[in-house]
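A favour between colleagues. Tell me how you read the following sequence-structure pair.

===
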Amino acid sequence: MESGSNDIFNYFLPYDTPTLDPGAFVQAMLTEVGDLIDQIYKLGARRIALFSLGPVGCIPARALLPGAPVDKCFGKMNLMVKKYNKGLESLVNDMPIKYPGAVGVFGAVYDIVQRFRAIPAQYRNSSAGSQNHKQKHKYIIK
């Protein structure tokens, strides 16, 4: 499951002043995820995958937020994302202890997306520009 990108983005919207500081907000989000894991485990889930958030502070819409940079990623937002992702990974690492018989998997999406952004030529589609539209596209992550 992947959840949280809208929560972190919305934390920075100018309509409501947040009642929690960023760290407490992230912890509240992680508590919700923990509660959801408890619920689905009780319903019989034994294989649970949690996916980290991507760099939410780099999405184009971030430029519309007050105080967000237009020409680069929004560092404050990505800092919250990184803290949240670290907490998700901890939840996965604790699954075998807290949930007997459960297997947890953590998908590190943030790092993959940042690699795509840093060196896009390394991940380009080798068939891009091909006149053969029926050719299957393959993306390779090294």
